[in-house]
Amino acid sequence: xxxxxxxxxxxxxxxxxxxxxxxxxxxxxxxxxxxxxxxxxxxxxxxxxxxxxxxxxxxxxxxxxxxxxxxxxxxxxxxxxxxxxxxxxxxxxxxxxxxxxxxxxxxxxxxxxxxxxxxxxxxxxxxxxxxxxxxxxxxxxxxxxxxxxxxxxxxxxxxxxxxxxxxxxxxxxxxxxxxxxxxxxxxxxxxxxxxxxxxxxxxxxxxxxxxxxxxxxxxxxxxxxxxxxxxxxxxxxxxxxxxxxxxxxxxxxxxxxxxxxxxxxxxxxxxxxxxxxxxxxxxxxxxxxxxxxxxxxxxxxxxxxxxxxxxxxxxxxxxxxxxxxxxxxxxxxxxxxxxxxxxxxxxxxxxxxxxxxxxxxxxxxxxxxxxxxxxxxxxxxxxxxxxxxxxxxxxxxxxxxxxxxxxxxxxxxxxxxxxxxxxxxxxxxxxxxxxxxxxxxxxxxxxxxxxxxxxxxxxxxxxxxxxxxxxxxxxxxxxxxxxxxxxxxxxxxxxxxxxxxxxxxxxxxxxxxxxxxxxxxxxxxxxxxxxxxxxxxxxxxxxxxxxxxxxxxxxxxxxxxxxxxxxxxxxxxxxxxxxxxxxxxxxxxxxxxxxxxxxxx
Length: 601
Known about the structure:
By secondary structure, the protein is α+β, with helices and mostly antiparallel strands. It has helices at 2-24, 50-53, 77-83, 178-206, 225-231, 249-268, 303-323, 326-330, 335-350, 446-459, 476-495, 549-555; strands at 32-38, 45-48, 60-76, 89-94, 100-105, 131-143, 149-154, 164-170, 365-370, 378-385, 394-401, 409-416, 499-507, 513-516, 522-536, 543-544, 559-560, 564-576, 586-599. It folds into 4 domains: 1-28 and 173-201 and 258-274, no CATH class; 32-170; 296-432, Nuclear Transport Factor 2, Chain: A (Roll), CATH 3.10.450; 435-601, no CATH class. The longest helix has 29 residues, at 178-206.
């Protein structure tokens, strides 16, 4: 009966192990799925919609092959469509029953006059891309994009886009029951071996001579040959005298074969995906987050995108500073930030010992506050710390992008003091709304802040705006007063009572930029001009510029009988509380630079 159960156990083991191995071999499905995208190569750009990339779950492995340069970038679908709106392109979308289809999308807008040559522009380096890749011949990368992201495929912006594109997704072909089946078969095999050995043992015991009840005949001879041989050291090699406990080669092989089968079965089911994953995944504990208002547009940029933009701006401006190239600077600067740079380049060209303006720091970006918008122009505020240990500083910048084809340019830049406390801001993935210049929801409209502060500079405590500003913690006002005193003392020493100087401040021509804070206030960047006019008080006197080489370089003269007017530009960042708040307008940061000088009329 033991042999019968052993045979049953062997059959069960064979079935279980065979089923387990079959799951890992002949019945195991493919490990990935691939979708080939073929285009006719009639356009310079191919836009693969996020729905195509997300048609199957998991990471997307994109492969693009073509002749020459191969360019791939990804970003928000709406941004990419806006960037491609002025040129025809091939759109790859999902049709009925999730079938991939291609269609030609014609140009729908005319680019601005400044971008009349956009049809030949290169796709590389656009600030709209979240990331980009470029290689020669072929390119492969792994992505995991949400449905609102798309992939742009191109060559150099002029040549037809590569036509050989494929997307591959991983498929879960794990066999969680293969391991248990193989393990169960191994246990059944072991049980069968045990039963088989027990059966053999039982048969051997049953074949032993049994003791009889009658004594042996007295005439039966008793052989003592074996005993004599043992006493004489003779070894009997007869097979019939072999010990019952020893196993021959055949029996050893009989046991070795199941043992090898057991080992092979165990090795076949040892991989992790051959077993059920019983351990429950740990759920992350909820953390407080800022609730995004329903229907709000996404932020203009992501944190990583903003960091790349700041780095590009810093690199371009550094190159322009070294070459005194105002045209190159204009590609990344605008407004007051560009105006101060142009003046500095003029002065440094005429005065070799004139210091350059502080470099725009590239990293690390500490704070990013993007505007929430789906249109243009767009604004992003960043706070960047200088990585230079010799002159550590923290810069606050307002960057703007005029249209999809333009790059972000710094319009305002200032320095934050170490003691400056910024108001509470929204998370970068939420963003902030841009406050209109004439908004009445603040204690002062953004387009009135510059004029009010200029009046504060002109009239001090007699200004009608004195109570609206936190003058006790304002570091710019004392600096302006110190500069007035120094200019007056300098003129009195050189003019010897034959000249006088007057000071005035006014709102600059640049429009204010305001981004909302979480307490419904706003960070407002404005431009203020400070001017001082030096005139002779005697008709026979002239004002000489012996001690003022900067004004001399800007005016091109070294003296004047009518005097000189020197203008400084202030880029100032304020925190403006919401309407109804008892808080005052607080200075956050600023930068003052010489802007222009001219001979007084």
